[in-house]
Each structure stands twice: as C-alpha cells, then as structure tokens.
Specification:
7 helices, 283 residues, 22% helix, two-stranded antiparallel sheet, alpha+beta, 9-stranded mixed β-sheet, 21% strand
Length: 283
C-alpha cells in the first residue's frame, strides 16, 4: 500500500526534528564534576607576604598563594621532577583557601586547604556542621601560640597592674568594633628581656580576632615589635619547615588529630563546558 500524504508528512517532521537535535547537541554543554580529597598545607609565612588571592597589592607584595605555587619552599619525602606543577604535586585542582589569616608583618604558621568545610569548622567552631560532617563535632577551640616581642621591660608577676595578670585573668578590651573584650589567654610565659626596653613572650590564645594580639598590647600601653606564630593546636609546629617560605602537606592522620577533621572526598561543582554531539545512525 502506498503511503498517504499524511504519513509522508509525519515522516518528514520526524527527520527534521532529528536533524535539529543533532545541530543543537553539537553546541550543548555538559556538567563534568571532578573529585579530589581534602588537602591541607602547613606554611611558614614570611614577612611582607599577604594572605589574599588578589595580585593587585598596592605595595607590590606577593601573596601566599603565588609563593606556594612556585614550589620553591616545598618540603616532602618524594623527589620532585622539574616539570611538576603545584596541582600535580598536591593532587588538587580546586581553589586553595587560608584557614584564618596572618597580617603582612606577622610570620609563622598558616594553614591552607581546598576544603571549605574545614575552613568553617576551624574558624567558626561554635557552629554545628551536621550538613558537612555529621560524625565530627565542631572544635571548641583551636589554640594558636606566638612568640611576641613587645615594648617595655616587663616582669612576670600577678600584681593587679601587671600585664601578665590582666592577660591571664581578665582579657583585654580591644574596642567594640574590633570584637570587644578578648578571652583570657590560654597561657603566657616570659622568655627574656632582649634589651632593657623590650620583653619576649610566649603567648597562647584560643580566639582569632583580626590583629588581636597587636591590639591587645596596644590597649595595655605597650606595642608589638615582632610577632611569629610558632604552633597551631597541640601538634602542629615549625619542625621541618623552620625557614620562612617552606611548606609541607599534612598527612591524613595529622589532619584528624590536629584539626579533628576526617579528610573526605570533595566534588568540584564548577561547570566545565564540553561539546557532546549526538551522531545519528546511518540507515
């Protein structure tokens, strides 16, 4: 039986529709999700290096990310080929973020990671992160220990007007716009008097207010001349990366014990465009 005009018309529409699908699909984009695990770096930040992603610093200072990506300061067990780049070495392509900040004049330990949940876990530890990691409770505190060289010849005693007494028992009012009264410090110890007009301290705090230590000593009538972060928590120190600019990748065990965080699989949900043409089968 010969096909009717209606049947031929329907066949023509079907062929036309398939041709349109082929052309449209040639320019279609598909979301491709990459996976990588939590990576944490421990970096010994030099002076005059800023903790920002911006490359337009008005004073021409380099940022911590550019310094790390050069790989000059990498410390690790495996020998690094000349052609390797940071992404290949660290096994990550997602953006690196600092966990907290150090101002440009402060040196010492800084943590960086590709895991945004970990950044929030440490810097906003009072928040419940069930949607991020239900089997891990948020950290109550992540202590930071500093060597601080301050102005003035101070003696470690518990007299009412002593800087040491105020730090240990009262906290310091650094101004309402800067966070108000700080918590009493976890520990403060006098190390030496390098000169008759200076005092070197070892100071441990459990907060992370912006420029907190500098503002504390300014409010106490002194001032910070040098500031170096020498320890994070109970485990992470400058051991192995004593020279400024050096950095290493923490092991999963170190991340668990020092930060109370289980390294996990991360999904990069950024769109990655790729043409995916659909070929029609030939009859």
């Amino acid at each position: 039986m010969a096909p009717t005009k209606v049947a031929l018309s329907l066949q023509g529409l079907l062929v036309f529709a398939l041709m349109c699908c082929e052309k449209v699909s040639a320019f279609s984009f598909r979301m491709k999700q990459k996976q990588e695990k939590t990576i944490v770096l421990l970096y010994n930040k030099p002076k005059h290096v800023v903790t920002t992603h911006s490359r337009d610093d008005e004073k021409g200072r380099k940022n911590v990310y550019d310094d790390i990506f050069t790989l000059r300061g990498y410390v690790g067990e495996k020998k690094m080929p000349n052609s390797v780049d940071f992404q290949s070495l660290a096994g990550m392509t997602m953006k690196l973020h600092a966990i907290g900040r150090l101002d440009a004049e402060t040196t010492g330990l800084l943590l960086l990671t590709n895991d945004g949940g970990l950044v929030h876990h440490v810097t906003a530890s009072h928040c419940v992160l069930e949607e991020v990691k239900p089997d891990f409770t948020p950290l109550s505190t992540v202590t930071k220990t500093y060597k601080v060289l301050i102005m003035g010849n101070h003696v470690d005693d518990d007299s009412e007007g002593s800087i040491f007494n105020v730090l240990r028992t009262q906290g310091v009012d650094i101004g309402s716009k800067n966070g108000g009264i700080t918590r009493p410090v976890e520990n403060v110890k006098m190390l030496s008097n390098p000169t008759v007009k200076s005092t070197l301290l070892l100071l441990t705090i459990s907060e992370g207010k912006n420029r907190q230590i500098r503002r504390m000593f300014h409010a106490l009538g002194s001032g910070v001349m040098q500031l170096q972060r020498v320890q994070i928590g109970d485990y992470l120190t400058l051991d192995g990366i004593e020279d400024e600019g050096k950095w290493r990748i923490l092991t999963d065990e170190e991340v668990c014990h020092a930060l109370n965080w289980q390294p996990r699989v991360l999904v990069d949900k950024r769109p990655r465009a790729r043409k995916t043409p659909i070929k029609m089968k030939s009859k």
